[in-house]
Amino acid sequence: MIKPKLSIVIPNYNEKENLERGVLDQVYNYLKKVHYSWEVIVNDDGSTDGGDKLIESFVRKHTGFKLIRGQHGGKAAGIWNGIRVAKGEIVLFTDMDQSTPLKEVEKLLPWFEKGYDVVYGSRGKMRNNFPWFRQVTSWGFRVFRGLFLLRDVVDTQCGFKALRLPLAKKIFPKLSVITEKSKAEGWKVSAYDVEMLFLAEKYGSKLKEVDVVWNDEDTSTGKNKNFVSESLDMLKQILQVKLNDISGKYDKN
User: Fold this and answer.
1) pLDDT tens digits for 62-105?
2) CA dist 228 → 63, 67, 128, 146 (Å)
3) What is each CA distance from 166 to 88, 113, 129, 186, 248, in whole angstroms?
4) Which of 13, 18, 143, 188 is 20 to 30 A from residue 57's alpha carbon, by CA?
């Protein structure tokens, strides 16, 4: 079997509305025109809205797409499930809603040819279609995070990131959200991206932030989002990453 150049991991949890508007067709229609080998791995994280049946049907009809299932563990756990079975040289994870369309990967891939190990999308400091309260919470999160970690990074939370696969397999098992195996309840944002980028930087990897197109395309209704409580949780997680580093947790192994 030929090793694909790019493995694309898409986590899914209660994304039926996004699936019904054809996001996987968008992904396929782009990939069928590229000139490199690829695979798409969709991890269903215990969806309860029936969207996984739509993915099953799509995968049966489209070569190169694979559906895997994991016990409900949250977004980072779903991405890790996909990374574990990925075969590509580079792994990209992207959100099901395709707020950043897959074609934006064209901006990321050339940087790997220049020796970078992690290339991640950035929405910049101003986010299109963000309501004012999300603009404020995003600004506050960015300022707080910069006091402790990744001072030169503008946007850690854009769900469009690519890593060399061996590095991804090294970093993800060390993430607190993976090692602690806390039970996920519903849909929840975490600061796993911050810890991932921090560890990549700590281990001497070359990181590159690249501006990408982003517009909020999420039409799902089954995620029960609470951005205020999620932001507070993420601030706590940032402090924990800093404490983990001070205590030497990341120096083990």
Assistant:
1) 999 999 999 888 899 999 999 999 999 999 999 999 999 999 99
2) 41, 32, 19, 19
3) 10, 16, 35, 30, 23
4) 188
Spelled out in words, what is the top-level CATH class assigned to the domain 6-251?
alpha beta
CB neighbours of 112 closer than 8 A, spacing ≥ 6?
A: 90, 119, 162, 164
216 and 129 in contact (C-beta within 8 Å)?
yes
Backbone angles phi, psi at 160, to 5 degrees: -140, 90
28 in Cβ contact with 41 (< 8 Å): no
Domain ranges within the chain, ordered by starting residue: 6-251
**What pTM, to 2 d.p., does this model score?**
0.88
Which of 35, 55, 34, 43 lies closest to 9 in space, CA to CA? 43
The rounded distance, in Å, linking the Cα atoms of 85 and 70 is 12
HEC profile for the chain?
CCCCCEEEEEEECCCHHHHHCCHHHHHHHHHCCCCCCEEEEEEECCCCCCHHHHHHHHHHHCCCEEEEECCCCCHHHHHHHHHHHCCCCEEEEECCCCCCCHHHHHHHHHHHHCCCCEEEEECCCCCCCCCHHHHHHHHHHHHHHHHHCCCCCCCCCCCEEEEEHHHHHHHHHHCHHHHCCCCCCCCCCCCHHHHHHHHHHHCCCCEEEEECCCCCCCCCCCCCCCHHHHHHHHHHHHHHHHHHHHHCHHHCC
Strand order in the sheet with 38-44: 65-69, 38-44, 6-12, 90-94, 160-164, 118-122, 207-211
